[in-house]
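To whoever is on call:

I kicked off a structure prediction for a single chain this morning and the downstream step that reads the tokens threw a length-mismatch warning. I double-checked the sequence; it's 78 residues and nothing unusual in it as far as I can see. Pasting both halves so you can look.
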Amino acid sequence: MLTGKKFRLNRETIAIETIREVRGVVMVPSGEIVTVLHGPTADDKRMVDVRWNDRTLVMFAVDVKVRGTEVLDESAGA
């Protein structure tokens, strides 16, 4: 389970943002930290909801795991 974990992305990574029921692609730059809000779920093991720069996005769980490094120390995000 990834919920609640923070990851620093090692590579630019694609995400999806929904604004007013319209979905759009967002590229999260390398070096940014995302926090997993929810997921993956038993129904969908591929997608996770993340928080990045006060935005809620959806990312592939595999991208978060493979392109990110878990941030264990709160000061590492500064």
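Update from on-call: the warning came from a stale cache, not from the record. Cleared it. Sanity check on the structure: The chain has a mean pLDDT of 90.
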